[in-house]
Amino acid sequence: QVRLVESGGGSVQAGGSLRLSCAASGYIYKSRYMAWFRQAPGKERDGVAGISHGGASTYYADSVKGRFVISRDNSKNIMYLQMNSLKPEDTAMYYCARHGTTYYSGSIQGPTDFDYWGQGTQVTVSS
């Protein structure tokens, strides 16, 4: 069955960096658009970054452009999110997700367009 497992979260001070990983299994990884979402307490789940199935196209929310970098290694079925210059407002649970359409290519769309999710990894940034 499809499984997504995030890791790499933690607590850092503002200005610090973290790298999140998402290990996928149970499907043809290179056929699916993947994305990172985040959700802070009391807020909606928002798309942070997305990457096309081959890795050639990426999308970033305005709030993280220039600070976060999404990448994927299709030979290892792993996706990454390098987060630099972290801010307290980046504090949230971060989730990786698989797009519901094979070979989809475009913007990140919304959470309902993704069919499988990881359990999440917490990122806390202190000022």
Walkthrough of the structure:
The protein is an all-beta fold. Helices cover 0% and strands 53% of the residues. It has strands at residues 3-7, 10-13, 18-25, 32-39, 46-51, 58-60, 68-73, 78-83, 92-102, 114-117, 121-126. The strands form 2 sheets. Strands 2, 4, 5, 6, 9, 10 and 11 form a 7-stranded mixed beta sheet that branches. Strands 1-3-8-7 form a 4-stranded antiparallel beta sheet, with no helix packed on it. It is globular, with a radius of gyration of 13 Å. The N and C termini lie far apart (40 Å).
What topology emerges from the helices and strands here?
Blueprint: E1 3-7, E2 10-13, E3 18-25, E4 32-39, E5 46-51, E6 58-60, E7 68-73, E8 78-83, E9 92-102, E10 114-117, E11 121-126
Parallel strand pairs: 2-11
Antiparallel strand pairs: 1-3, 3-8, 4-5, 4-9, 5-6, 7-8, 9-10, 9-11
Basic shape: globular
The CA-CA distance between the termini, in Å, is 40 Å
Q: Provide a count of the helices.
A: 0
Which structural class matches the secondary elements?
Answer: mainly beta
Element-level helix/strand string? EEEEEEEEEEE
Please tally the β strands and state the result. Answer: 11
Q: Compute the CA-based radius of gyration.
A: 13 Å
Which stretches of 5+ consecutive residues score pLDDT under 50?
none
Which bin fits the share of residues in helices? under 10%
So what's the oligomer here? Answer: single chain
Largest sheet: 7 strands, mixed
Summarize this structure as a short list of keywords or feature phrases.
mainly beta
